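quick one, 297 residues, struct below
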Amino acid sequence: MRKKIVFLSLTLALLVAACVRPAPVVTEPTEPSIKMPLEEPTDIVLPSDTPETIPTETSTPTEQSLEATATEEGPTAEPSATPTVTATTNYTPTATIPPFDPVALYGAPTYNFGPENTWKEFVGDYPDTENIRIAVDNNLLAVTGKKDQWDTWWFSWPGGQDYYVEMKVQTGDCSGKDAYGLIFRGPPTGQPTRGYMLSFSCDGHYMLRRLDSASPYQFVDLLIWEPSDFINAGSNQSNTLGLLVQGENILIYANGIDLTTIVDDTYSGGRFGVFVNAWSTADFTYKISQVRYWNLD
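---
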C-alpha cells in the first residue's frame, strides 16, 4: 500500500512539471539606432558697410603779429590792440582734374583788369602810402607791402554778390609767410572796412580771414595757414589764385585746382581788391600779370 502511494505522488509531480514550464522569452528585434547629421547653420561673417574711421588733424593757430592797416580809396585805418582768434574751420582738400577752366564754364570774362585806371586813386595816381605801393612795371602791376608784418589791401571799384575771379601772380623775392592775395566782399567806398582776405604765402600755404573791423582791427580766421602741393612755393614762382563766391560758399583754387570750400554768410557781396603782407621780406613785392572777373549774379 505504501509503495502505491509513493508511486502516485511521483507521477503527479512529473505531470505538474510538464505542464508548468516557463514560457520562452521572446526578444523582439529592435531597429538599429540611426544618428542623423546635425544641420546647424554656420556663422558667416559678412563684410561691413561701415567705413573705417580716418583720423583727422586739428589745425593750431599760427602765432603771428596781428597788427594791421587798411589801405583803400580813403583814409588809412589805424591798428588796434591785438585781437583774439575766435574760430577756425576744418575742411578736406580735394583735387579737381583736369584743372578748372572758367572760360569753358562761364564764357568770356565780364572784366579783364589791366594796370591802367582800375587800381588808381580818384585823383588818377597809383597809391603810394606808408603802408602800400602799387605801380606798373613792364606792363605788370607791382604790389608792395611797405610795413613789415601788417595786413594791407587796396580795393578796386567793381562789386557783386556771386562771382569768380582769378589773379595770376609772380612772387618775386620772398620767403616764409610773405603773403599775397585778394580781399573781397568789401564795403562801398567810404564805409567802414570789412570783408574776407584770401592769401597765399611764399612757402606754399593758404589761409582765409574774415575782417569784421579795421578800427579796431577785429577778425576771425576761417582757415589758418594750410599747406598745398598745388601752390608753387619759393621766390620767382608763378601762381594763379582763384576764388568762387556763391551765396555762403567760398571756394578756393590754386592753379585751377579746387583746394577747399569754406561756408560763411556774414557778408554777402561787395568790392574786391589786392592784399599783401611783407612778413619775412622787407618791401615784399609781387607782380600781377592778369586779373579776370566773371559776374555770376
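The helical segments are 2-19, 102-106.
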